[in-house]
Amino acid sequence: MMYRALSIAGSAARGGAGIQADLKTFQELGVFGTTAVTAIVARNPRTGEGVFPQHIDAIEAQVHTALKDIGADAIKTGMLFTEEIITKTADWLKQSEVKNIVVDPVMIGKVGSVLLKDDAIESMKTKLLPLATIITPNMPEAAQLLGIASLNSVEQLKEAAKELHKLGPKYVLVKGGRLEGPAIDVLYDGEKFYMLEAPRIDTIHTNGAGCTYSAAITARLAKGDTVPEAVIFAKKFITAAIRHSFGFIQGVGPTYHAAYRKYDETSCKVWVEEE
Ligand code: PXL
Question: Does position 167 have pLDDT exceeding 70, yes or no?
């Protein structure tokens, strides 16, 4: 049985993030990946950092083709960029009747590009997040979705997860990658918190880490994991990918999507906290 996952996301020409990260991760985890490119993100010496959104009909055609010709056991959304793309994506997700929906509320890339317009945040909250099996915000995204300045502690991650759960997703994963100390993420199911702790890896090269993490969750959900199983696996997968990330020519380099298979299995400490 070959399980399938569709990624609706942006193309990141640097190869470490966006739809490229998703496909590489799906492949690593033995899941057949399909794609709908929402926008192309690439820098041009003449025009600067560029985001080239695709026509809504082109995005719809890709989603339609992927779902009708191949099918999907899980769908992940990444960079959606505009209000229109979010609204349509919500419609397609509902029509698809796919059970495993992973929404990575991508807003700003580590390279600094704006990946979601300000006027699209409200639609993200009201139309897309309620459809999600799991949402995977990092600290700035969680703060932005809640309209607060910043998150600064594990206690605040837990509070944020509870507040975000009220918007309708079944699970909320708030990632503590920007905390001091160990890399602690909080998974909340509406009743209890799964706390996931991995060692902090001292590197600046984490481009695409969020995409890769949520793609690994998507792949494991497609294969039938429960959400906590998928997240615990994905935490180890992304920790290995960051540990073996690359500094290539310029800027924040990409994580290594094949690291989990090639190198050591990184451990992840997990415990449950009641509310
Ligand atoms: O890592 C966030 C991200 C998501 N999607 C696309 C990106 C990036 C960051 O570079 O380019 C398309």
Answer: yes
Q: Is 106 in the pocket of ligand 1 (CB under 6 A)?
A: yes
- Nearest of 3, 13, 73, 70 to residue 37 by alpha carbon: 13
Structure confidence by residue, pLDDT tens digits, 117-143: 999 999 999 999 999 999 999 999 999
Domain ranges of the chain: 3-274
What DSSP string runs through 75-116?
A: EEE---BSHHHHHHHHHHHHHHT-SEEEE----B-TT--B-B
Give SS3 for 162.
helix
- Cα 94 to averaged position of ligand 1 atoms, centre (Å): 25
- State whether the beta carbon of 137 lies less than 6 angstroms from ligand 1: no
Q: Is the pLDDT of residue 15 over 70?
A: yes
Count CB neighbours of 61 within 10 A.
13
Output the residue whose Cα is nearest ligand 1's atom 10: 109
Tens digit of pLDDT for each residue in 64-74? 999 999 999 99
Q: Is the pLDDT at 106 greater than 80, yes or no? A: yes
* Rounded distance from Cα 222 to ligand 1 centre (Å): 22
How many residues does this entry show for the chain?
A: 275
Distance 107 CA to ligand 1 centre (A): 9
CATH number of 3-274: 3.40.1190.20
